[in-house]
Design a protein that fits this description.
single chain, mainly beta, 193 residues, globular
Length: 193
């Protein structure tokens, strides 16, 4: 299993040749499943989406994008709390109509990505069900206490804070706070896209 986090907020998880990509942007590889978290076309990287979509790619997106014309063939629309199985990947959406986060299972591992929707109270339902949680840490409304509190309630084995710009969160303090609670923190090495 390999995981990549891009500077632009893209998260890609691969199990061999099979990939799940959340919010594709920049230079991305083709994925079997693409998950879009934002509910506004203006927040999408259309070129990144085109690169991630191949002939068999299934794109999962919020209901709010239903009337948008996007460069994808196979599209599934979800609302908060919906569950879907695509190519054996079980996907559960969390959040609001304005944006979704996703929990998905690939192989023997479970992942949760807040995406552009940010933290929402609905993640509490996922307590003890996530191996690796990706929390976008560059929303103005997200601070260190929010992330620590959410991680303590979620209880992932590994927390990955990621961001598409400068993080307002002190990542060293975050590591110290969570590792004291037996939650490993991996800060991605971000390369320019």
């Amino acid at each position: 299993m390999s995981v990549e986090v891009g500077r632009d907020g893209c998260v890609a998880v691969r199990d061999g040749e099979f990939g799940v990509c959340v919010d594709p942007s920049g230079e991305v590889d083709e994925a079997a499943v693409v998950l879009l978290t934002c509910a506004s076309r203006s927040d999408l990287d259309i070129e990144g989406l085109k690169k991630a979509c191949g002939r068999g790619t299934c794109v999962v997106m919020p209901n709010a994008l239903r009337d948008e014309s996007l460069p994808c063939r196979d599209i599934e629309y979800l609302g908060p709390g919906d569950v879907l199985d695509v190519y054996g990947v079980r996907i559960r959406s969390l959040g609001t109509e304005e944006g979704l986060g996703y929990r998905f299972v690939l192989g023997d591992s479970s992942f949760y990505v807040t995406g552009k929707s940010g933290l929402s109270e609905s993640f509490i339902e996922l307590e003890n069900t996530v191996d690796m949680a990706f929390v976008q840490a560059d929303h103005r409304s997200v601070d260190l206490d929010d992330i620590v509190g959410s991680a303590v309630r979620l209880k992932p084995s590994v927390l990955v804070p990621y961001f598409s710009g400068d993080s307002p969160v002190n990542l060293e303090n975050l590591k110290a706070d969570l590792e004291d609670r037996s939650i490993s923190v991996e800060v991605p090495s971000l390369e320019e896209s």
